[in-house]
User: Fold this.
Amino acid sequence: MRSMNITQSVHDMVFEGYGIELRPVMPLDLPSLRRWRNSPQINEQMVDTSYITPHQQQLWYERIREREDQACWVVWRKGVRTGYVNIRGKGPLESQTQISGGFYVGDSQVRHGLLGYAIALMYHEIIFEHFSVSEIRDSVLKSNHRARQLNQQMGYREQGENGSFVNIVLDYSDYKIARKKFARYFDDAHCELIG
Assistant:
């Protein structure tokens, strides 16, 4: 595993690979993020299912730019916004041994069958390769069968339930084994920090 370049703010990092690019969330991204987040297919999978107003979205953006314990990116493919990724820790991301987070695929004209896998691979490689974290611990809604299936394909193990959530864990070695199954489908099967 590599160490992250801690001289650069995580909020400004740009990653490329698997046919996509992850760019920091900017003010121009907020309408798309809000539209996706309020869409029924994404909203019903969230802990907070309330409707997000433009003002709430703006306040969220202002808060995340100041936080050291999380980072957020917009997924771009062929110059089109097509998803969202976030990671979070319990303190400054650069010093965490465990990081969690999530992602979703937005509705766009460049959406395709492998896009969710591309985003999942980038998400995991940022955590494992660029932050040198050895384990991801998180939870997913029991009713989110698509996410649970994808997590299982990525090597996660389910470790009990907590109310309406299933606790999941993924260690680096299990991810590396699972990654081999999917990397062959991508010409640029890597996650590179480009900015």
